[in-house]
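Private note to self, pasted from the team thread so I don't lose it. Backbone tokens:
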């Protein structure tokens, strides 16, 4: 069954659209940045999309080897090792990224307890000595400022911890203990340089409203001039586990947007914090790294809708994550395992990768949004050309297509229409992998084939303007994301060249 829709865009159309798609991207723990595959995937993402910040866990975990202690004259003293940190930061800077610094987790020797999380055992307990915690944070910031320049490093946002409202990420989900951690860290960072922007509480799901309200109350009571608020945003119901994998059902998008609005409303209810920036420092469909939906075209289409609205009330939104070099629940068994990333093992772009490429093109266009709904965003550039993105997420079994006809105000002439299509038929490396027998360790030839199958389908045609408008039709098949550009384009042929004769085989006689 095909739905048909007609959209008329007049020369005076204008509608709000806040596209901050490239502000930040998520990553697995920082120590993974030392590996070759991680670096190759991030280079691909930066070449094609180009994010500005990167945020992930593990800055102070033991595999980064920053915090050490030694004993001298019976006194235990701290010392710091930035060998790995410098390698990671140098690499990030080489690909055009600034860190969005997350302060966590706790070094083993500084930790009060032994609770850890994930395969890589990040310690999630408070510090045994807050003075040592603050000194560690300050020493790290000063080192970064010495290496990269104070004026540069103070532009890197600082977030205190990750998801303290979940007991796995913060011992007992102890709210008051987290507020102490935040308070101590806030003053420690500002003491180094008051220009640093510091925020929290980086909460996720379930108790987010309770925590954000309590966080704002605490900051208000203590007169903390917090610079921004952070939270996470996932859009699934409870997963069902089968073997290594999680199967999920998506929430209604409106329910998720309504939940985000509660954060905005809570913050704005405090006059001193009204309009304080909100950074969504993690978002995706599923919150588990083995959710098969992440590899699908459905994920790409659903995220396209999210990107069209996440800027409504939020300063930024960071997709979790750029790549599948990720080990929270162990080393993956196969290249397509439901990992969070935009890129699968072997540098294979997933369909959602192209959703971000398309939105980055919108951002770079300097266009004005002239239309936005639940399936389409359209921008008009100053020169009168148009570009946009359409999407059609379909739950399994529905099988509907959408045909969208756009009537666009335009000047006389002939226009060139370019479309790039990502759907289950044209850009679906997951299906190709399945048809190849789901190899756990694809050969070089199979990996090359999967990369070839992971490219959008490009089409072009020429369209004439009639009665001061150009009419185009976009077919959005099941779980499609389609990007289009329409621009005035005359023909300036070289002397003696005739395209019609060239393709028609006409020798001129």
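Design output:
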């Amino acid at each position: 069954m095909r739905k048909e829709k007609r959209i008329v865009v007049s020369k005076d159309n204008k509608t709000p659209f806040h596209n901050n798609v490239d502000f930040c991207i998520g990553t697995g723990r920082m120590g993974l940045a030392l590996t070759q595959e991680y670096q190759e995937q991030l280079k691909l993402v930066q070449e094609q999309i180009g994010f500005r910040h990167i945020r992930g866990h593990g800055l102070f975990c033991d595999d980064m080897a920053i915090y050490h202690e030694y004993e001298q004259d019976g006194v235990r003293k701290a010392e710091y090792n930035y060998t790995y940190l410098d390698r990671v930061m140098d690499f990030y800077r080489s690909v055009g990224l600034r860190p969005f610094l997350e302060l966590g987790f706790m070094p083993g020797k500084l930790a009060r307890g032994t609770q850890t999380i994930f395969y890589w055992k990040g310690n999630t307990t408070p510090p045994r000595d807050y003075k040592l915690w603050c000194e560690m944070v300050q020493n790290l910031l000063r080192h970064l400022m010495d290496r990269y320049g104070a004026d540069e490093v103070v532009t890197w946002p600082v977030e205190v911890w990750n998801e303290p409202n979940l007991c796995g990420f913060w011992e007992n989900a102890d709210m008051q203990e987290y507020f102490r951690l935040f308070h101590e860290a806030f003053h420690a960072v500002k003491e180094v340089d008051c220009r640093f922007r510091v925020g929290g509480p980086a909460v996720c799901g379930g108790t987010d409203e309770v925590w954000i309200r309590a966080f704002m109350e605490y900051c208000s009571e203590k007169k903390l001039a917090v610079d921004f608020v952070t939270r996470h945003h996932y859009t699934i119901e409870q997963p069902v586990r089968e073997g290594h994998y999680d199967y999920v059902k998506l929430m209604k998008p409106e329910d998720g947007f309504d939940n985000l609005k509660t954060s905005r409303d809570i913050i704005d209810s405090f006059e001193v914090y009204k309009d304080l920036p909100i950074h969504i420092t993690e978002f995706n469909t599923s919150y588990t790294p083995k959710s098969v939906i992440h590899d699908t075209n459905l994920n790409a289409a659903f995220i396209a809708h999210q990107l069209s609205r996440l800027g409504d009330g939020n300063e930024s939104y960071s997709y979790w994550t750029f790549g599948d070099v990720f080990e929270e629940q162990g080393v993956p068994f196969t290249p397509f395992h439901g990992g969070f990333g935009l890129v699968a093992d072997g540098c294979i772009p997933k369909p959602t990768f192209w959703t971000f490429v398309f939105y980055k093109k919108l951002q770079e266009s300097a266009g004005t949004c002239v239309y936005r709904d639940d399936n389409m965003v359209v921008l008009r550039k100053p020169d009168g050309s148009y570009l946009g993105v359409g999407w059609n997420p379909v739950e399994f079994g529905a099988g509907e297509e959408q045909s969208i006809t756009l009537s666009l105000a335009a000047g006389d002439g002939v226009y060139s229409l370019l479309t790039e299509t990502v759907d289950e038929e044209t850009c679906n490396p997951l299906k190709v992998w399945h048809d190849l027998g789901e190899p756990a360790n694809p050969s070089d030839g199979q990996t090359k084939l999967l990369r070839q199958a992971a490219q959008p389908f490009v089409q072009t045609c020429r369209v004439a303007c009639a009665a001061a408008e150009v009419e185009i039709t976009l077919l959005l098949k099941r779980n499609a994301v389609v990007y289009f550009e329409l621009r005035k384009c005359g023909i300036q042929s070289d002397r003696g060249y005739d395209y019609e004769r060239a393709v028609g085989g006409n020798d001129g006689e």
